[in-house]
Amino acid sequence: MRRKKRSTIEDMMEEERPRERLLESGPGVLTDADLVAVLFGTGGPGEGVLELSARVTAALPLRQLHRVPVEELLLVKGLGHARAAQLLAAAELGRRLWPDGDAAALVRGPETVFDLTRDIRGANREHFVGFYLNSRNQVLRREIISIGSLNASIVHPREVYQPAIAVSAASLILAHNHPSGDPTPSEEDLAITRRLVEAGRILGIDILDHVVVAKDAYASFKERKLLHA
């Protein structure tokens, strides 16, 4: 089953809308574009907020947003002074709350991934996440790629590797939760991982691990020697 294409907020079921998902499951389940959509609230003339937020997050380095000059923000189509001010205020608030935020998380092993997936471990639907790393295994970007049903995520290589290319990632780590509470990889997990590993080899971007998490435990493909195409 393919995920339904989202065009406007009005096209989405209420429980799928970014603001409702944030309130229900926490901000960690939202993509960067979803978070910006919540921040903006509305789109512009002839353009929905989802389209606007997707373009903004593609055009701007969100991790370094507090360093981006206002003049550069205003070059992005749809960003006037009011929305530029919203973005800069949010970035500054985040910097004050997390003063060492410029220090990217260093992934030392599956236990680090387990710690970085606290927000999805207890979710009642599968959340498939990508951690995009530089050559020192620091996280350049974390992206929620897919949110599935009770027991299945729908994942396409294109959606996994687009963020990797966007941030020039050297490698990536996959993670997803098992709502059942048992992190043992399923046959579907194995098949999806083999497909993604093969795609990564073609692109020259290695998958270092795939970590399945549950509320109190995890299973690492690398540790179990399951990471192969």
Automatic annotation (TrEMBL):
InterPro entries membership: MPN (IPR037518), RadC_JAB (IPR025657), UPF0758 (IPR001405), UPF0758_CS (IPR020891), UPF0758_N (IPR046778)
Among the GO molecular function terms of this UniProt record, one is: metal ion binding
Q: Could you tell me the keywords of this UniProt record?
A: Hydrolase, Metal-binding, Metalloprotease, Protease, Zinc
MPN domain ranges (all copies): 106-227
Instruction: Return the Gene3D superfamilies for the record.
Output: Cytidine Deaminase, domain 2
Q: Which GO terms describe its biological process?
A: proteolysis
Its family remark reads: Belongs to the UPF0758 family.
Name recorded for this polypeptide: DNA repair protein RadC
The organism of origin for this protein: Eiseniibacteriota bacterium
